[in-house]
Design brief:
The complex is a heterodimer.
Chain A (H helix, E strand, L loop, with lengths): L9 H20 L5 H28 L2 H21 L9 H26 L7 H32 L1 H9 L4 H26 L7 H8 L4 H34 L13
Helix pairs in contact in A: 1-2, 3-4, 3-5, 4-5, 4-9, 5-7, 5-9, 6-7, 7-9, 8-9
Chain B lengths: L2 E8 L2 E8 L4 E5 L6 H8 L6 E6 L2 E2 L5 H7 E4 L20 H6 L16 H13 L5 E5 L7 H18 L2 E6 L3
Helix pairs in contact in B: 4-5
The chains are: A mainly alpha, B alpha/beta.
């Protein structure tokens, strides 16, 4: 069963944009200093989504492995840059970018490939209609979690240097000395996903499922995809974050388990 | 010979040589910001340094940093507490007599650290370090936050530990 979808035109988007305009005025009234960011983000959203719309249309029509790889690579580069941009205290040089990119690559790509080969099994396996949205959803969530947890951990290590050194001085290992901060970071990164999973279908209808239903899909089929997506996202977020925090720990402590904050900007 | 330092270098400090024998305490006096605390942190292997440091003839580089830090007891100028109860910071919580000898309440081990005064933090910090039975003491103004009576008690406790057990100590202070 599919129902006919309502075709939206540019005026419909404009009407929705009125809400953002109202929000911007409210932000300006309270002098929150985010009006400019909201305006930039809204313009970026429109441009980026229209661009990706055309790119995806091209990809679906061409259906070539190499184009999928190029898009995936571009997504990885942009996401890695976003991770670094969100850091208050970055690792010096290219290390921070490399850390974000490598952990994002390992977690998102591994989970997306698992999803494609084992769970969804499209034919061919890289079919852009499946591989790009799947990778995109896993990567965007993983990117947020990696960025947030990295930022929290580097800030925690910087702000609590004296406590960490005192714990080391008492003979604790670097892992013991930073364990409370690690736990806090993992909790911070994973809890949004856990909460979303726990309330999905009750408090909110998840975005992808809603999109499929609006596009005319049968709700029970859309639900199956949403469940799969959430499981894959949880895996990407959890493994990506664990890898990123491990690399930070490895980078900010040396072989003598000394805290090396000079490696941060 | 308790501690021997040869050609120690860290940051802008070059070629520091120092030998402190068993039962001996060397006091290093200098202005604030002159690098006294950095020297202690370098010896405790908390910051990067080069040179040879030996404890009872064993080189620092030949043992793990964890073993080394358990052997050198470092008391920083400002003591921090991170667990919910003071007693959780001690592997073997000190007895009533030990606490009372530094004019500390026997119940203080059950307290939340936020309840401790600066002086109590300092005195308990000394006990926290001695509890681990280090073979050499690195003391960064350990009595700076104490009144005269408590300062004398803490000083006597540290010196007794060093002399009775034949340990060594390096005591830094901004005043003699």
């Amino acid at each position: 069963m599919t129902t006919e979808t309502i075709q939206l035109d540019y005026f419909d988007i404009l009407f929705a944009g009125i809400i953002i305009l109202g929000l911007g005025i409210l932000m300006a009234y309270y002098r929150l200093g985010v009006t400019r960011s909201l305006a930039i983000a809204s313009v970026r959203l429109v441009i980026q989504l229209f661009l990706i719309g055309y790119v995806l249309r091209f990809l679906f029509e061409e259906d070539k492995e190499v184009y999928v790889a190029i898009i995936a690579g571009a997504m990885l580069l942009v996401a890695s840059r976003e991770i670094i941009a969100r850091q208050k205290r970055r690792l010096k040089g290219w290390t921070g970018f490399g850390l974000g990119a490598s952990t994002l690559f390992v977690s998102s790509f591994a989970i997306a490939l698992y999803g494609l080969f084992v769970v969804v099994r499209p034919e061919p396996w890289y079919l852009p209609q499946y591989s790009i949205p799947l990778l995109g959803m896993i990567m965007s969530n993983t990117m947020s979690a990696i960025g947030l947890s990295m930022d929290r951990l580097t800030s925690a290590l910087h702000d609590n240097r004296a406590i960490i050194e005192q714990r080391l001085a008492l003979g604790e290992s670097s892992r013991q000395a930073i364990l409370p901060y690690l736990r806090d970071c993992i909790r911070t990164g994973i809890m949004p996903v856990v909460n979303s999973m726990a309330t999905a279908g009750i408090v909110s209808l998840p975005g992808m499922m809603t999109g499929q239903i609006l596009a005319g899909a049968i709700p029970t089929e859309a639900v199956k995809y949403q469940i799969i997506i959430w499981f894959l996202i949880a895996g990407g977020v959890g493994f990506g974050m664990a890898a990123a925090l491990k690399v930070i720990e490895w980078r900010l402590f040396d072989e003598r388990q000394r805290l090396r904050l000079e490696r941060l900007d | 010979m308790a501690l021997s330092i040869r050609n120690l270098q860290f940051l802008d400090w070059k070629d520091i040589n120092l030998t402190i024998g068993d039962g001996e305490v060397v006091c290093l006096v200098g202005e604030s910001g002159s690098g006294k605390s950095l020297l202690l942190r370098a010896i405790a292997d908390l910051i990067v340094s080069e040179g040879v440091i030996e404890l009872d003839g064993t080189e620092r580089s030949s043992m793990s940093s964890l073993d080394w830090r358990r052997k050198v007891g470092y008391v920083p100028a400002e003591i921090f507490w991170w667990e919910d109860a003071v007693g959780a910071h001690f592997p073997k919580p000190p007895g009533k007599q030990s606490l009372e000898s530094l004019r500390l309440s026997p119940d203080c081990l059950d307290w939340n650290p936020s309840r401790l005064s600066m002086g109590e933090r300092q005195r308990l910090g000394i006990l926290r370090m001695l509890d681990r039975e280090p073979v050499f003491l690195l003391l960064d103004e350990p009595t700076a936050n104490l009144d005269e009576t408590n300062s004398n008690l803490a000083e006597n406790r540290l010196l007794a530990y060093i002399q009775e057990r034949g340990r060594g100590g390096l005591w830094v202070s901004h005043s003699s």
